[in-house]
Amino acid sequence: MELKTVELQPKIQVKKSRKLSLKHRRNLLRWGISYTLLTLLAVVTIMPFLWTVSTSLKGQNETIFSYPPNFIPENLTFENFVTVWNTLNLPLYLWNSVVLSFWGVLLPLFFCSLAAFPLARMNFKGKNLVFMTILATMMIPGEVTMIPVYLTISKLGLIGTYSGVILPGVVSAFAIFLMRQAFIAIPKELDESAIIDGANAWQIWWHILLPMVKPMLATLAILKFIGAWNNFLWPLLILEDSSMYPLTVGLYELKGTFVSNTRLIAAGALIALIPILIVFIAFQSYFIKSAYSSAVKG
Amino acid sequence: MYKARTAWLFLIPTGVLLLTFSIIPAIAALGLSFTNYNVFQPIEWVGIENFSRAFSDEDFWNALWNTFYYWILVTPALIVIPVFLAILVNQQLMGIKVYRLIFYFPALVSVVVTAILWTWMFKSDGLFNAALHSVGINPVDWLTDKFTAMPSLAIVTVWQGLGYYMLFYLAGLQSVSKDLYEAAELDGAGFWAKHIYITFPSLKPIIFFVTVISTMSAFKEFTLMLTMTAGGPIGSTTTLVYMIFEKAFTDLEMGYASAVSTILFVIILILTLINKRALDTTQQ
């Protein structure tokens, strides 16, 4: 009897550890497959960027297109960046993009939260009608109204001005909707006590409510920044003087004028990418959040 | 608590902008469809002439076909692949956040930069052909061949959109209760069974959302066509919006272009309604 139990004990242990190692091995396999797939997909995703970086660092005598492709430049040089920076007035394009993006973020934030305030916190006749009308405009694609909006800008004498580029994008139903959702979440008692303390509606909006919806404002700011920074069609249509072009339009011109010089275009494209990459890395959690909140309306 | 007058004061600035740049233009677009407005001559009412012209215009049918073709190439891929990508990045793995950021990044790159990067990928001696060469396939002139131009643009769109739609699915996956999976595991469900019976059904609203959004954006996309192929070769990447753009701003035929816009709007509206109906019936 005693001998038997002694014999049994190690047997059970062996069985147990074998089971564990099986589970362990299955996990390892899962990790292996996952990482292989993830890395493969990541390489495919960043391949165009890698290739651009490599091209922009290649000297004038090096071949760009070759088989097999050559990713590592033989003579590493930053000359292309210097050339493109000096000859193409990229600093000016960059500055124009900054100006357009600044107003393209600030004005929508201001006006959309202004309109969202009464829709979220006041009761008045016609409120539902106003809100439904705003939501209905979400159904109208900008591409459909492109022609009348262009004609309006032209009638207002705003062709060739930054106002003409910025104004059509200031108010969007989606931004009003997001801000309204943020305001609704704040308890109503706050407004009541502020009114008793003698605050007016403007003060309540500016001093009390807006500071409380900062996360939503940041999210919206990110969304608007991506849109404004990458805006291409409106500046192309509205602006006439090339010294007012933002980077996107400047780069489009560059693509035309430097068709043959791939290295310079690569350098220019990377310079255009850097600001959005910096903003993206600095505010990555907001980027993810902004994508999530876009899904809210579905 | 608040006076009604105050509410309207807050709404006026936004209301003016919304009327000027959205509501009135929408009505004007419809109105212009029935005129022969061409910037130089005074506007004249021509009834349904623009519409009957569109339906007998070969270019219009070509653009309509190209739009549907692009949609069919792009939308199914953007509905299905991101689901698996989201399942992949929803695992608890070291550095998974970095992978998520990498996949999402292309969505932030402007169309012009995207066009520049991918034009090189598709060159006859570019990376794409180099990769094909290594598996023994002859090089193709992707963007200048009328059969490969549109599929090439679709590849770019999918590359740019995968990470974007992945995030929506990821949000959906993270709201699925873990208990469901544990219960299924106890019942002996494997990887596929778990996803077929739990993941996909609970992602249904997101799938609907992605279907609508990717459909809308497929029907509206044209900057890629403008910057990568300029509608060519031989009109093979001229979509409806590209045609509207060209007719309005190159040929200055604003009336005819508005009629095509109106048709596009009706198509988008119908597709959205179909999508919604499909969801309503599957949810009942």
TrEMBL record, chain A:
Keyword Iron-sulfur assigned: no
One Pfam family linked to the record: BPD_transp_1
Cellular location(s): Cell membrane
Transmembrane regions: 28-51, 93-117, 129-153, 159-183, 264-288
Entry superkingdom: Bacteria
UniProt record, GO biological process: transmembrane transport
GO CC annotation: plasma membrane
Main localisation: membrane
Residue span, ABC transmembrane type-1 domain: 94-283
Keywords annotated in UniProt: Cell membrane, Membrane, Transmembrane, Transmembrane helix, Transport
Coiled coil, from the record: none
Bilayer topology annotation: Multi-pass membrane protein
Gene3D superfamilies: MetI-like (1.10.3720.10)
Keyword Transmembrane: yes
Family statement: Belongs to the binding-protein-dependent transport system permease family.
Protein name: Sugar ABC transporter permease
Record organism: Fictibacillus arsenicus
Automatic annotation (TrEMBL), chain B:
Keyword vocabulary terms for this entry: Cell membrane, Membrane, Transmembrane, Transmembrane helix, Transport
PROSITE patterns on file: ABC_TM1
Residue ranges annotated for the ABC transmembrane type-1 domain, each copy included: 64-275
Name this polypeptide is given: Lactose ABC transporter permease
A Pfam family that the UniProt record links to this protein: BPD_transp_1
One term under GO cellular component: plasma membrane
Membrane topology: Multi-pass membrane protein
Cellular location(s): Cell membrane
One Gene Ontology term from the biological process aspect of the record: transmembrane transport
Residues in the signal sequence: none
SUPFAM superfamilies (UniProt xref): MalF N-terminal region-like (SSF160964), MetI-like (SSF161098)
Cited Gene3D superfamilies: MetI-like (1.10.3720.10)
Family: Belongs to the binding-protein-dependent transport system permease family.
Chief site of localization: membrane
